[in-house]
Amino acid sequence: MNKIILGLMAIIIFTFVSCNKADDDTPKTFTLKSADVSTVFTQEQFGEGQNGCTGGNKSPQLTWENAPSGTKSFAITMIDINAFGPGIPFDHWLVINIPTTSNSLVKDAGNISGANLPLGASHTPNGAYPNYVTNPDFVKAYAGVCPNVGNTNQYEITVYALNVATLNVTANATSTDVKAAIKSTTISSAKMSVTASR
Fold it and tell me: The domain 27-197: what is its CATH number?
């Protein structure tokens, strides 16, 4: 009888351990969140001195978790997906070469100084170059949201896990060029959608 009881206990313990191991092996979802915004931008993230907006022009804090295996760097984009009409976007912010030792960006990481970015990371020109500003260095920063009066625009903030440590783009690459380079090296991505209204 004792042998039967011991055998049953061994089966129960083995089953419990196996179930826990299976749970541990379940892939976790790559996620992106912000301490500053959830679904709607605040005045702090609005642009300053453009199109009548008087915001703080500060990029939101971002945190991402559960990056996939093989990730060698991260990139961030923030895009107004219908800025000039359906399917006509404007790129507000691009950051590349974020090291895997970082899983967040602080508030105002998009400052033109670049001082708030993780070591090794850099801005690339936003959508103002070259159509609105000819100097790519001038627009290597966060461009605050600023929809037209009466409009509610939708923005996508996306973090990309890349299979390269350094993205191969030129100094005067446009945001379209950078997005193409990001797409070609992406392992996985996570995004959040945020709106802004005036």
Answer: 3.90.280.10
